[in-house]
């Protein structure tokens, strides 16, 4: 492709031949990955495999030295900054929950809505019917409807993670990037998180989940990509990837 052309694809996310180096160290090496619209993909791989850097490339935090990164068929993400990318419908959930602890659950979701903060701060602001509906729907999906008036700080670790996922959903993204959502969760919470992500994915959201917990990844029941040294080592069903000798050698067998 020439420098001026942007590829058009049917994919929601298309990475091809992506390279990133930090002071001469190749963190991402000829990385190619395609996610279809409505797909959920699990990304696994050992520490330092490049999983976080890949997410940073998609959100514009890190710019690739080389390669194509195309969102929603036509949008060249390499040309856009982080702020602009966030407005395109790409939501990212970092590993640690960052909810507003002294606000209620409902207010956390309201804060996440794309309402002008200056307008919302006035005495006369009333939430619109569509906003109320959206919040009710998100509360239903994250199963915190009964707790809507509780302070977020009183939630369990797992519930905080769900609330933060809900805050992303309130913004109605096309693509959700979720980094190690079940770290520190109980087995029950881990199972409920798998159910939650499957539910979100069933509503046409494309989802990328980075996770080390293989029980959780198995429960998601989606295609798995194993990264190693900044590139794709193996891709396929959890059974195929788990049986791959190289994957066992560099990751699962350790
Ligand atoms: N800003 C940076 N400067 C220098 N090296 C970096 C930088 N960011 C990442 N790296 C290196 O790039 C490699 C990939 O890191 P990355 O954090 O993407 O891996 P990861 O797969 O997310 O690992 P983990 O599972 O531990 O989170 C690592 O060797 C890391 O030390």
Automatic annotation (TrEMBL):
Single GO MF descriptor: ATP hydrolysis activity
Domain of life of the native organism = Bacteria
Q: Has UniProt tagged this entry with the keyword Magnesium?
A: no
**InterPro entries the UniProt entry points to:** AAA+_ATPase, ABC_AA/LPS_Transport, ABC_transporter-like_ATP-bd, ABC_transptr_urea_ATP-bd_UrtD, BCA_ABC_TP_C, P-loop_NTPase
Please give an example of a GO cellular component term from this record. Answer: plasma membrane
Record carries keyword Hydrolase: no
* Keywords tagged on the record: ATP-binding, Nucleotide-binding, Transport
Q: Which SUPFAM superfamilies match?
A: P-loop containing nucleoside triphosphate hydrolases
The segment(s) forming the ABC transporter domain are 13-254
* UniProt function note: Involved in beta-(1-->2)glucan export. Transmembrane domains (TMD) form a pore in the inner membrane and the ATP-binding domain (NBD) is responsible for energy generation.
Name this polypeptide is given: ABC transporter related
Q: What is the lineage of its organism?
A: Bacteria, Pseudomonadati, Pseudomonadota, Alphaproteobacteria, Hyphomicrobiales
């Amino acid at each position: 492709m020439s420098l001026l052309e942007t590829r058009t694809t049917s994919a929601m996310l298309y990475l091809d031949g992506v390279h990133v180096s930090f002071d001469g160290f190749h963190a991402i090496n000829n990385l190619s990955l395609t996610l279809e619209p409505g797909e959920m993909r699990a990304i696994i791989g050992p520490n330092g495999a490049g999983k976080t850097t890949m997410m940073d490339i998609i959100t514009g935090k890190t710019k690739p030295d080389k390669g194509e990164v195309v969102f929603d068929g036509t949008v060249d993400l390499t040309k856009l900054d982080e702020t602009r990318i966030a407005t395109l419908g790409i939501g990212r959930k970092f590993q640690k929950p960052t909810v507003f602890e002294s606000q209620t659950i409902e207010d956390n979701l309201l804060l996440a809505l794309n309402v002008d903060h200056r307008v919302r701060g006035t005495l006369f602001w009333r939430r619109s019917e569509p906003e109320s509906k959206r919040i009710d729907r998100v509360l239903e999906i994250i199963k915190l409807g009964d707790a809507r008036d509780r302070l977020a700080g009183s939630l369990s670790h797992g519930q905080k993670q769900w609330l933060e996922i809900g805050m992303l959903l309130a913004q109605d993204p096309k693509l959700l990037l979720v980094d190690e959502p079940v770290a520190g969760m109980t087995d029950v919470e881990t199972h409920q998180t798998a159910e939650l992500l499957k539910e979100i994915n069933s509503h046409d959201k494309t989802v990328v989940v980075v996770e080390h917990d293989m029980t959780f990844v198995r429960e998601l029941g989606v295609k798995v990509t194993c990264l190693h040294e900044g590139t794709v080592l193996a891709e396929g069903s959890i059974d195929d990837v788990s049986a791959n000798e190289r994957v066992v050698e560099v990751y699962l067998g350790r």
